[in-house]
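Lecture 7, part 2: worked example. A protein chain together with beta-D-fucofuranose.
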Amino acid sequence: MKRTNRLMFILFASLTLLFLLAACSGQEGASSKGEKKEGTTTSGTSGNDAEGNASPDKIVVGFSQIGAESGWRTAETESVKETLGNSDEFELKFSDAQQKQENQIKALRSFIAQKVDVIALAPVVESGWETVLTEAKDAGIPVILLDRGIEVEDESLYTSFIGSDFVLEGENGAKELINLIGEDVETNIVELQGTVGASSANDRMKGFKNVIDQNDNYKIIKSQTGDFTRSKGKEVMEAFLKSDGDNIDAVYAHNDDMALGAIQAIEEYGLKPGEDIKIVSVDGIGDIFEAVADGKSNIIVECNPLLGPQLAQAAKDLMAGKEIERWIKTEETVFVGAEEAKAALPDRQY
Ligand code: GYE
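Predicted complex, written out as structure tokens:
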């Protein structure tokens, strides 16, 4: 009896072992498949559809955004997310650099490691991009500059620039200001600059000066950065008013947010913005249209932030092997005075 029992036990144990081994190997197969799928997703070489299946047709775009310093910037982010974020054609990897170039460089390196198809970069400043863009080039990933430009010796480090002509914006702002006040009127201007080193600040400063320098009655008496933000614009304007007070005839702000901050500072100082001190600013966000319609500001130089569709088209063309334009420009205009602002307000999209 004992012997039979032992035999039965050995037989049973062997069968159980065999069964367990079979079950384990089955599980292993399933989990390795799972890992493979996850790796494909995070590598970013292709997008995934609703069921989580890889769809190699999707174009993966890594976008390094500067931050959220202005109404313009928020509108640009929304435009890109709207166009590429919820799309069958694109997978968007979005990274917010919080105004720091070092964060943008990190984001670019991570996009390169993930082998994205296209990198879109809104560069916070113009200089210091050679090393990381060379890494992108060596990895065979095209880089499209969005909104701001860069200065590099090797122009092949980026494929295309999608954005505005900032020098022209500055020139147009100065021309309209002189038209408004009159060529023969002595005019002291204070300038609120954008972020130091940003192409949109450098070029808007250059363009404005080009025109102002040709008229001896017009002088830029103070110029300082307000970092493209409402709060800094207000702070700097307060300092200008403290030092130069009633001597200031006009404000040139590189963006609307700083102009809106300046409007507050002028009101708190006891003067009337738009009347005692004329104001010209760049962008064209909703709040400045309201201010101009209310007579608190005077001139809006439009700069279009809705660049998502142009980025999508450029990325598609690149992936299809087409050549894309080196500089993809947007059509823009200038609005002067309350009547023009009121008429345009209902159609504004940002
Ligand atoms: O005018 C400003 C933003 O680079 C064109 O950056 C862009 C500028 C824009 O913060 O509002």
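The CA atoms of residues 144 and 159 lie 6 Å apart. Residues 2-43 form the longest helix (42 residues). Keep this in mind for problem set question 3.
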